[in-house]
Every structure is written in structure tokens, then in C-alpha cells.
């Protein structure tokens, strides 16, 4: 099968960063596995974090990639949720070969039925960003309708879905951050009610918008930089949700007097620890697909590249690393 892989962890411009190759097809699926023919993938910030330079060399080509949409080719003996021919989408398992290959094995319990109203490319844009946003809002923060939320880092892939889920599903008053006219216009199109510039005085802008304090704050960018801002902005007995790992100790004492709840989301927790509710991600993806099919949600795709090869993946990684990405970038089809 055709694939794009890496051996070394280097700067994206290095010849060994990613390369096109041919690899053996995966073995026949066993247990709860599906064998999926990948039609489209998307690139996330996670791809750059995994590929970033480090002193390590893989013994064999490693395929990465954490979002895919495709068609089930075969199923393991324990599979009950899908059958060959089904269109599916998923964010995969970091401990297994990734989606940048024509064929991939994936556990059915972390796979959803692809939205019928979206293309394969549009479906591939959704899983990681949607699962992160959904789990953070509904599983971790347990948001309640009619309240207010500040979303920092709202124009990216996770932000695009978090804004939509908050505004269109949870019925929250959404204040989203954006620093450029194009990113501000994007988050408004996703459903944000107010925009604040995260490069300016966020507290003053919240007050001007009529929300000097908010019930929830979601940090989707630079926890180190914005934690104190979040602590000041959140209302007494409110909650802060983090989706970006802190690299410095956070002063949780800032939350004490207000009895603020602090939660965080790592989308692969259920997969990494094989939790008893592993199939929760299957249910979430199916629910999100239904929301798209009923016209509640809008595609976050802003850029397309074809085919899925090293040249286009290099361009995609650079785009994600620029800090100016809006929405989602997807790649479709393998070279003939």
C-alpha cells in the first residue's frame, strides 16, 4: 500500500521528515478491528508535536496521522457496529500505525459513521477536533444551557467545533477570541456572539461586551500565557477547561476564593487507558454526524490539498505551525 512515513524526527524541511513509500498491507482484522481504506485525512497541531525534532530514529518507517475518513473493507470476528462497505470517520489510536496510508486498522469502538451529507474530505476534518471539543464541553465541564463561555483560541480546528457546540448545541452565550479580521469573521460564522482580541486587554473587552465575568472559560491555546486571564475572567463557582498542556506550573491558588472548577481534556485518555467507556467515542461521533446531517453544524474545512503525499503533508505541517491557521486543512486521495 502507498503511505507517507518518517524515520527521523526533524524539522519539516529536512528530507527525512516525511517521505513517500510503499508498505505491506495490514494483516486481516482481528477482535474489534476494522480494516479501512482511507480516502481523506486532516492535519492537526498534534502531527507537528509528534514529529518535532528529537534524538530518535525509528527502526522501520512510521506512519502517523490522527484523522481519517474511509470505507470499511473487512471486519474482525468481534465487530458488531459496522460491516464492509460502511463509510466511517475516526481519529485513531496513537499507539498504532496512523492514517497516512491507504489501509488502516482501527478499533470499531472509537469509530463513527461518517455524516451522510458531507464529503469524505469534510468528514476527515472532524474527528480529533470534534471529540476534543465535545468531551471538554460536555464530559469534563458539563456545561449548562443559558450560561456564558469564553473560548480562547477559537479560530483553529478545535475552536471551530467548540464554538459551534457551545452556541448551537449547548445554547451558551459565546465570547470567542480572534486577533485578525479574517479569523474574527470565521468565528462569527461558526456561531460566536461576541469577539475579543486576545492580543489586547481581554478583561476590558469582556466588560465592554457585557460579560465582565463568564461561567466557563476554555483555553485552546497557550495555557501558560492565558491561565491567569482565565482565572480573572471566570465567575465564582464557574469552571475552566484546558485542552493544551501547560509547560509551567499553574497558580491554582487563583481559583481558591471563587471555588472554581479546573478540568482538562486529552482526547486519547480513553484509548490510552482502555477505559470501560471506550465506546463513548463511537457514540459521540455518531451524534456529531447526526447534527451535521440535520443541518445544525457547518463544515470547518477551509483548505484542500491532493493527493496525500509527502509534498502536500510538508505544506500542511508548515501551515499548521504558522500560528495563522483558520479552520481545518484536509488532504484527499492517494497518488495513482
TrEMBL record:
Pfam families: ADH_N (PF08240), ADH_zinc_N (PF00107)
SMART domains according to UniProt: PKS_ER
GO-annotated molecular function: oxidoreductase activity; zinc ion binding
Domain Enoyl reductase (ER): 10-331
Gene3D superfamilies noted in UniProt: Medium-chain alcohol dehydrogenases, catalytic domain, NAD(P)-binding Rossmann-like Domain
Stored InterPro entries: ADH-like_C, ADH-like_N, ADH_Zn_typ-1, ER, GroES-like_sf, NAD(P)-bd_dom_sf, Zinc-ADH_QOR/CCCR
Keywords: Metal-binding, NADP, Oxidoreductase, Zinc
Keyword Acetylation: no
Similarity field: Belongs to the zinc-containing alcohol dehydrogenase family. Quinone oxidoreductase subfamily.
PANTHER family registered for this protein in UniProt: QUINONE OXIDOREDUCTASE
Name recorded for this polypeptide: Zinc-type alcohol dehydrogenase-like protein
Annotated source species: Zemynaea arenosa
